[in-house]
Design a protein that fits this description.
By secondary structure, the protein is of the alpha+beta class. It folds into 2 domains: about 100 residues, no CATH class; about 45 residues, no CATH class. Helix content is about 40%, strand content about 15%. It has a two-stranded antiparallel ribbon. Strands 3-4 form a two-stranded parallel sheet. A hairpin with a 2-residue loop joins strand 1 and strand 2. About 35% of the residues have low confidence.
Length: about 150
């Protein structure tokens, strides 16, 4: 799993646990496939699709959903209020990662920064990289379906 997908997963973005799912098995010739995804019916003569209008994968997993909106600010504020440490996720990428239970080491942050496309000149200055990374994470979370407070973007 990518570093950023781990963040999305911890925030509950990229899937919808509240959607009903069904499993169907179809046999074509000697091959058998099983698909899992939200229950739908397709008109005769059309390929089956899930609620997103996408064909279910033949590997047995459904395509990640991103149409649910998660209030990231409220979720992280709630997590911070119950955390043993006083973490300021709004300004510190280290605190944001700690709050999500993700490795906040410099090595991990550099890997995440590389994954998100951090300019090379910022990678050599941990303070600049951290500021860039914090903003990049929140922008990408917002682009992935999360609602992030405007003042943090």
């Amino acid at each position: 799993m990518s570093f950023f997908k781990d963040i999305l997963s911890k925030l509950g973005i990229g899937h919808d646990d509240n959607q009903p799912t069904s499993t169907t098995t179809s046999t074509v010739g000697a091959a058998s496939t099983t698909t899992t995804g939200p229950a739908t019916t397709a008109p005769a003569g059309t390929a089956p699709v899930n609620q997103d209008g996408l064909a279910p994968s033949i590997t047995g997993t459904s395509v990640p959903r991103t149409d649910s909106t998660i209030d990231v600010g409220a979720k992280l504020d709630g997590m911070a209020s119950g955390h043993a440490e006083k973490l300021n996720w709004r300004t510190s990428v280290v605190d944001l990662l700690k709050l999500l239970g993700i490795d906040s080491s410099l090595e991990h942050r550099k890997g995440l920064a590389n994954e998100l496309g951090c300019p090379a000149d910022k990678l050599n200055d941990s303070a600049e990289m951290n500021m860039w990374l914090h903003k990049a994470i929140l922008q990408k979370v917002a682009a992935s379906g999360g609602t992030v407070p405007a003042d943090l973007l």
